[in-house]
Amino acid sequence: MNTATPRLSARGLVKRFGPTTALAGVDVDLADGESLAVMGPSGSGKSTLLHCLAGILLPDSGTVALDGREVGGLSDRERSLLRRRHYGFVFQFGQLLSELPAIENVALPAMLLGTPRREATDLAGRWLGSLGLAGMEGRRPGELSGGQAQRVAVARALITGPAVVFADEPTGALDQTTGHDVMRILTETTKAAGASLVVVTHDAQVADWCDRRIEVRDGLVRHAEAAR
Ligand SMILES: Nc1ncnc2c1ncn2[C@@H]1O[C@H](COP(=O)(O)OP(=O)(O)OP(=O)(O)O)[C@@H](O)[C@H]1O
Ligand SMILES: [Mg+2]
């Protein structure tokens, strides 16, 4: 890792849910433009880590900083604004609004940040085209295949030019070939857009497409290795 301030930096993250310690003291650094795969068994704390890194959950102790600025002290409203402005999200499913056509699903995050509808819609159309979805702009999520819907989700995550994209098992509901397709699009497009990426995955091949991987076990990062 270079000596510049990390894009995202977490220190000593601890998160408990009642008697369960989901995170037991985790440090993570993510460089500008770097992609990081988070692996580990079910229940080990991967999603909790992603939610803490993204400011969705507040840790019980420890800090998270974006570009050297701590996010823990922000109000709920400030944190949700920070997520909207600086982060993109791709989840397993359910992030698309079922009643809106693909193009409006993609345009929405830009409109929420104040981009006029016409401009946001044009931009959304270009994103859909570049992800191989030209002609599908008017389809609602239920009229798309799982892989197509996830590509719409990738476009939606990237349209605002986020600093970091967070993806939790984005291919968990897809067959392996389609899943690999979506993951390649996610990693390549995120990299081309200059955003950093944190992706939770069970798939070692998916992790190979990332710059680096960590393994979470019992709420701790057990080892870190360069993927290449
Ligand atoms: N909201 C919650 N309330 C109570 N316990 C929770 C909550 N969220 C997570 N946990 C617990 O914290 C631990 C870590 O959960 P987490 O969802 O982070 O695991 P994970 O590694 O993402 O697992 P999976 O691969 O199954 O998605 C688990 O024991 C889980 O049951
Ligand atoms: Mg999980």
From TrEMBL:
Q: Which residues form the ABC transporter domain?
A: 8-226
Alphabetical GO CC annotations of the entry are:
plasma membrane
Among SMART domains, the record links this protein to:
AAA
- Kindly give the Pfam families that the UniProt entry links to this protein: ABC_tran (PF00005)
Q: Name one GO molecular function term.
A: ATP hydrolysis activity
Entry keywords, A to Z: ATP-binding, Nucleotide-binding, Transport
- Cited InterPro entries: AAA+_ATPase, ABC_transporter-like_ATP-bd, ABC_transporter-like_CS, ABC_transpr_LolD-like, MacB-like_ATP-bd, P-loop_NTPase
Q: What is this protein called?
A: ABC transporter ATP-binding protein
**Species name for this entry?**
Cellulomonas terrae
